[in-house]
């Protein structure tokens, strides 16, 4: 018999089902047939139906039924393994008796098992078509400790609470939990009937120490109890909300029926209210906003359509619904693409574009960070607004512009309260509504031209808007609700910094945009202005052609500005003349050269003023800074017989008048070194005039030019025509630094100057000067006014 059995076991793997049907395999007395189960744990004294689907488990169950022997029920943690090995099963299981074996119509197998005793696997035996293992049975410990009894009492209480939360729990089960005496059996029963995870039940099965087993069951029960409590609270809240909605619906339907009976019902109005209610639900508003919108909608529902308050309330709800409350989409930033966009849209401005690329790179690496508020400062026409549009394109965001020029009422920023007739939100909220996204790029244009009146200070209202730490709850007076501006990107523009209040300037990073050189203007005209004006005037690219010499002549003789707006207007005038000729049929196309400009644009508007005005003694060329960029400034001095008076004309400011007085005093103190008879000052009246008298002028930077003009006047020596100068002077003869060097240098180059005298302490400012200007101009640095005399008056230096 033993030999046959061994032979049958060796042949079993070749045809498992056939061998099992023919013979019952012999299992040693100290071994058990193991049935792996992956989704349940059987405890001693418990009856549990188990579904088996894998072939080894089916063969093992059939072997136990045929032999009438017990089986070992063991948990398999990984259900993906079809034929688990020893390492794929837990080592502690339950000895069980199969009470019933059922094959269902869908070919699945179910065994009803009764747990008998815990066991530990010693080793698995080979050459069986199903798992067989030698085991050691584990005896149940006895209750012999007051601590065990205390834990058991606590467990009964918690188990009763958990079972009451679970659905379909019979009273008999509750009674069994309350009346069962052995503590180990109590722990096994509670773990079996509670909704524990299989791995937690396995932990209970493996806890051979009784106190440890009770603690594990208590911990799992407490976690389960907390989950069940939260779940019941959520269900109760949901049920209460549903009941409230049903109640409101029924009351609303009754009210509508009553209004119809009274002849006051309006189906259109009811439909409108319902559409507004649905729109509020779909708008994804914050809780506070949605609550306020629902409150206002209920007020609107009980108002007559013809009342004034109905119209105001409906407008308010429309504003709430049209504002973008949803979370904006994340930025799509590609640094290489951003560089290309900036290069395609703007020529030059290398330092500015470099800073913008840095800004975008930081934004990409830290999307939730609060970057600086960029403020583009520069003369008109240099591309401040278009830079903001390029940033929006690089970020993949919408662009919107809000003009602040001339705004003098705080309500223009924060909005008017709804108590006023015709009240509206402020410019910020209006611009966001226009953009349709609260993650747009908003340009606050002309921030230096904010006004200040009796209605408040708009710049103070902007402090909150431009502060990333505060604007996440910006409150417009009209909405009277918080609106999150922290995801928006604000960019501001200005012509001068002096008009921006200090606290507001402190919130922004200043990026200065210089004026363009003639070479840059020529390239901008080629790349952008020509194509735009040809399209705007209805021409085709082949119907008009500009020579480079013609464009250079327009830049040199018909415009003198830091930007390119006037240049584009002149190009547009030429294109309009071509459009007239082509429309009349007098010519199919036009070729524009330098000689044709006088017939189209008229005579040259700008002459070489430097050559005309600087050939006489007493005339010097200075450099000035204006909000429109740099400019040249002529200082003219004349003397007549008199009593030593100083006359100043040209609408000079107080600082510039003081510079003229200091320059005259300095010339008197240096009369000997300049070869001037000191007695001439007492018998001479000096008249200093700065042309363009209709334009106010002020500042200390004309001090060097005034000193050279007066020295030239009294020494009867002319100043070099190719030289311009800037710098403040002191009574000790020192040349002090001034601002606006970059703009002044570009103005000198536009005017045909080749030599520029600058204070020595302004040497570092040349880093910002374009390379084309550095190549065109010769820079001479001054420490004292004596250096200026040697460079500007070569005849005096030769003596």
Automatic annotation (TrEMBL):
Belongs to the peptidase S16 family. GO terms for molecular function: ATP binding; ATP hydrolysis activity; ATP-dependent peptidase activity; sequence-specific DNA binding; serine-type endopeptidase activity. It comes from the Bacteria. Homohexamer. Organized in a ring with a central cavity. InterPro entries: AAA+_ATPase, ATPase_AAA_core, Lon_bac, Lon_bac/euk-typ, Lon_lid, Lon_proteolytic, Lon_Prtase, Lon_prtase_N. Keywords: ATP-binding, Cytoplasm, Hydrolase, Nucleotide-binding, Protease, Serine protease, Stress response. Pfam families: AAA (PF00004), Lon_C (PF05362), Lon_lid (PF22667), LON_substr_bdg (PF02190). It is an enzyme of class 3 (hydrolase). It is found in: Cytoplasm. PANTHER family: ATP DEPENDENT LON PROTEASE FAMILY MEMBER. This is Lon protease.
């Amino acid at each position: 018999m033993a030999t046959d059995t061994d032979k049958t076991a060796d042949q079993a793997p070749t045809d498992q089902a056939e061998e099992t049907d023919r013979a019952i395999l012999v299992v040693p007395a100290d071994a058990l047939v193991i049935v792996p189960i992956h989704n349940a744990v059987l405890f001693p004294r418990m009856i549990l139906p188990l579904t088996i689907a894998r072939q080894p488990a089916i063969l093992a169950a059939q072997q136990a039924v045929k032999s009438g022997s017990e089986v070992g029920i063991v948990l398999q943690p990984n259900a993906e393994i079809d034929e688990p090995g020893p390492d794929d099963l837990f080592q502690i299981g339950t000895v069980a008796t199969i009470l019933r074996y059922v094959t269902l119509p869908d070919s699945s197998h179910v065994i009803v098992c009764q747990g008998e005793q815990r066991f530990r696997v010693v080793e698995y035996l080979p050459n069986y078509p199903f798992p067989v293992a030698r085991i050691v049975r584990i005896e149940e410990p006895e209750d012999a400790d007051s601590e065990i009894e205390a834990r058991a009492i606590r467990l009964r209480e918690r188990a009763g609470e958990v079972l009451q939360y679970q659905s379909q729990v019979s009273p008999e089960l509750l009674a069994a939990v309350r009346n069962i005496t052995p503590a180990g059996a109590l722990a096994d029963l509670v773990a079996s009937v509670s909704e524990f995870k299989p791995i937690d039940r396995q932990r209970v099965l493996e806890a051979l120490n009784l106190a440890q087993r009770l603690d594990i069951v208590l911990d799992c029960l407490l976690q389960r109890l907390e989950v069940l409590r939260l779940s019941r609270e959520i269900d109760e809240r949901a049920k209460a909300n549903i009941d409230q909605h049903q109640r409101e619906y029924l009351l609303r339907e009754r009210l509508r029926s009553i209004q119809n009976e009274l002849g006051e019902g309006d189906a259109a109005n009811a439909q409108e209210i319902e559409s507004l209610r649905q729109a509020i639900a779909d708008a994804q508003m914050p809780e506070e906003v949605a609550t306020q919108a629902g409150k206002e909608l209920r007020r609107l529902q009980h108002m007559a359509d013809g009342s004034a308050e109905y119209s105001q309330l409906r407008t308010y709800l429309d504003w709430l619904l049209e504002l973008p409350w949803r979370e904006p989409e994340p930025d799509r930033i590609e640094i290489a693409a951003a560089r290309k966009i900036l290069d395609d849209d703007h020529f030059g401005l290398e330092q500015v574009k470099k800073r913008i690329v840095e800004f975008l790179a930081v934004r990409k690496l830290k999307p939730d960070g609060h970057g600086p508020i960029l403020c583009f400062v520069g003369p008109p026409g240099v591309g401040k607004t278009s830079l903001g549009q390029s940033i929006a394109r690089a970020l993949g965001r919408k662009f919107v512009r809000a003009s602040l020029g001339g705004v003098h009422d705080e309500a223009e920023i924060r909005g008017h309260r709804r108590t006023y007739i015709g009240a509206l939100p402020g410019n910020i909220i209006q611009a966001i509504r226009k953009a349709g996204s609260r993650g747009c790029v908003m340009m606050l244009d002309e921030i230096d031209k904010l006004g200040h009146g009796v209605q408040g200070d708009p710049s103070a209202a902007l402090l909150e808007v431009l502060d990333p730490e505060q604007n996440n709850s910006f409150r417009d007076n009209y909405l009277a609700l918080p609106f999150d501006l922290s995801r928006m990107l604000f960019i501001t523009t200005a012509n001068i910094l002096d008009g921006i209040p200090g606290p507001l300037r402190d919130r922004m990073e200043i990026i200065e945009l210089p004026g363009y050189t003639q070479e840059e203007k020529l390239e901008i005209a080629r790349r952008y202005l020509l194509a735009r004006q040809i399209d705007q005037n209805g021409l085709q690219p082949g119907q008009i052609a500009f020579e480079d010499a013609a464009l250079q002549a327009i830049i040199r003789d018909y415009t003198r500005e830091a930007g390119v707006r006037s240049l584009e207007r002149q190009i547009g005038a030429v294109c309009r003349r071509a459009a007239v000729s082509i429309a009349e049929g007098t010519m199919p196309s036009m070729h524009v050269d330098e000689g044709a400009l006088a017939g189209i644009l008229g005579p040259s508007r700008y002459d070489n003023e430097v050559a005309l005005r600087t050939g006489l003694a007493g005339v010097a060329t200075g450099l000035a800074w204006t909000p429109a960029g740099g400019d040249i400034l002529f200082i003219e001095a004349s003397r007549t017989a008199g009593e030593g008076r100083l006359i100043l004309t040209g609408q000079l400011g107080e600082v510039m008048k003081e510079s003229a007085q200091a320059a005259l005093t300095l010339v008197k103190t240096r009369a000997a070194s300049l070869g001037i008879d000191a007695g001439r000052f007492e018998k001479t009246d000096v008249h200093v005039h700065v042309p363009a008298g209709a334009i106010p002028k002020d500042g200390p930077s004309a001090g060097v030019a005034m000193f050279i003009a007066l020295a030239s006047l009294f020494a009867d020596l002319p100043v070099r025509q190719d030289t311009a100068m800037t710098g403040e002077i002191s009574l000790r003869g020192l040349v002090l630094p001034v601002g606006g060097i970059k703009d002044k240098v570009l103005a000198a180059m536009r005017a045909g100057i080749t030599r520029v005298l600058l204070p020595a302490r302004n040497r570092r400012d040349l880093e910002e000067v374009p390379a084309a200007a550095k190549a065109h101009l010769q820079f001479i640095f001054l420490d004292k006014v004596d250096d200026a005399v040697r460079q500007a008056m070569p005849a005096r230096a030769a003596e």
